[in-house]
Structure formats: structure tokens, C-alpha cells
């Protein structure tokens, strides 16, 4: 992993944290409407920002872990003889990024979505206690597997296209 002196590490961590916090804060009410529609529960306008605190707490570490895991895995793989800067390297790096960051995104989503659909406002800590009492640690990871099924292919495609678009890989290698 990068050390504290690595400028790229800090640039990625700070830039991803800042952009993630701003975008979460702005789009959270839209996400609340989406969760309300998906759950079939009526939207309470007072709850538009319910769960925002949990989102903001998890966003920086989750997004930073996603981007940093991708970059560090890519760097590591490129040091191996079997890998170079190609689509296979980018796909494997994307898989690692999703597995690691999903360990943060999933609990965030569980907590946030509980808060967004509750009839009355609850604190983040009361939702955490409720999830823990009902299901223990596994309650915070409900949906982790299906999230990987959705987001691993998405990230593999995203990073392959991204790297090709910026000139980071050749066209003759695919995942």
C-alpha cells in the first residue's frame, strides 16, 4: 500500500473524498426518492436528507478505497511478468476495487436505506443498533453479494473503457 509520503496517494484520497462528499450531499434527496419508489413506501418529504450523515461518513473511505485499490492493484500486477498495462490488468484491478470498497459501500447503503424509508426519523446510531440486534454483523452486509454481481462487471467495463480512452491500454487485449 502507498505510504504517507506518496503524493499520488494523497491526491487521489483528497480529490475522491472531496468530490464524493459534494456529490453525495447534492444527490441524496434524489436517492431518497429512488429508495422510496423501490421500497413501495410513501415518501415523507421530511426524510429527504435522512441517512445523509451515514452516507457522508462512509463515502470518503469507500470511494478512496475503491480508487486506491484499483490503482495499487494495477501497479502491483504490472510488476508481474504475466501482466502489463492491458485490459486483463484493468479488469482484475476493478474486481479487487469492488470487493474492497463494497465492504464499506454495503453497510452505508443498509444504514442509509433503513433511515430513508422509516416512517419517523431515527438517529444513525439507533438504526445501527437495530440492524445489529436483528441480524448481527451480517445485517450490515445484506446485499453485498448481489452488489458485487452488479458492480464488478460495471467496473470492469468502466475501467477498460476509461483506460483505453486515456490511452492506457492496447486494443488487442480484452477481459
Automatic annotation (TrEMBL):
<keyword id="KW-0472">Membrane</keyword>
<dbReference type="GO" id="GO:0016020">
    <property type="term" value="C:membrane"/>
</dbReference>
<keyword id="KW-0812">Transmembrane</keyword>
<feature type="repeat" description="Solcar">
    <location>
        <begin position="85"/>
        <end position="168"/>
    </location>
</feature>
<feature type="transmembrane region" description="Helical">
    <location>
        <begin position="48"/>
        <end position="68"/>
    </location>
</feature>
<keyword id="KW-1133">Transmembrane helix</keyword>
<dbReference type="InterPro" id="IPR023395">
    <property type="entry name" value="MCP_dom_sf"/>
</dbReference>
<comment type="similarity">
    <text>Belongs to the mitochondrial carrier (TC 2.A.29) family.</text>
</comment>
<keyword id="KW-0677">Repeat</keyword>
<protein>
    <submittedName>
        <fullName>Mitochondrial carrier domain-containing protein</fullName>
    </submittedName>
</protein>
<keyword id="KW-0813">Transport</keyword>
<dbReference type="InterPro" id="IPR018108">
    <property type="entry name" value="MCP_transmembrane"/>
</dbReference>
<dbReference type="Pfam" id="PF00153">
    <property type="entry name" value="Mito_carr"/>
</dbReference>
